[in-house]
Specification:
By secondary structure, the protein is mainly β. The chain is built from three helices and twelve strands, in the order βββββαββββββαβα.
């Protein structure tokens, strides 16, 4: 379980293919605090640490993860947003994020707004995946508030701190990002469809 508050960025050091899987070796500021079997959110995808060295660690993504997220697009040198699992006594500063990416979206606009930035993302609606005005959404593992919610797109506003401390500062038109829609919203949408006889 995560909150969508990015703790640090990792740099991809190596990518190795192994049949349908990919192994990613990364460096980050807290490598020495990690342990094998630990779950970490990578751009919003929950991955397990499988190996650790003095200055790097490795995680493995299976085929299902590679086709449903942007993890399979990572190459050496890329920056990845990281968040370690929430502790039971921690404050929930963002919103409930499971680390289970629903789908990807594409950045279609970046607009600077006097020190902040607005990003527009477009996606193909799948199942119960929707946004609502002032609702929550996780973009590459970052907990954000939706503005300008549309049936196939939404916008988010990024403050300077988030811009500098996440990989938002490298987003360009066409950048593919991971989306995790609000779990409460997904349950409500599913229940409404069930009780309206649409499933």
């Amino acid at each position: 379980m995560f909150s969508g508050i990015v703790e640090a960025m990792a740099r991809v050091k190596a990518v190795r293919e192994d049949r349908g899987n990919k192994h990613f070796t990364l460096s980050c500021p807290f490598v020495r605090e990690l342990k094998i079997d630990q779950s970490i959110s990578h751009n919003g995808v929950c991955l397990t640490v499988v190996d650790i060295t003095d200055d790097t660690y490795t995680v493995t993504a299976i085929h299902e993860t590679l086709v449903k997220s942007n993890i399979g697009l990572l190459v050496e040198g890329d920056l990845v947003n990281l968040e370690r699992s929430m502790k039971p006594d921690a404050l929930l500063d963002g919103h409930i994020v499971q680390g289970h990416v629903d789908q990807t979206a594409v950045c279609t606009a970046v607009e600077e707004a006097d020190g902040s930035w607005y990003y527009m993302f477009e996606y193909e609606p799948v199942g119960d995946n929707v946004t609502v005005e002032k609702g929550s959404v996780s973009v590459n593992g970052v907990s954000l508030t939706v503005v300008n919610s549309q049936p196939r797109s939404f916008q988010v506003a990024i403050i300077p701190y988030t811009y500098e401390h996440t990989n938002f500062h490298v987003f360009r038109l066409g950048t593919v990002v991971n989306l995790e829609f609000d779990i409460i919203g997904k349950y409500i949408a599913r229940l409404m469809r069930h009780y309206m006889g649409k499933e």
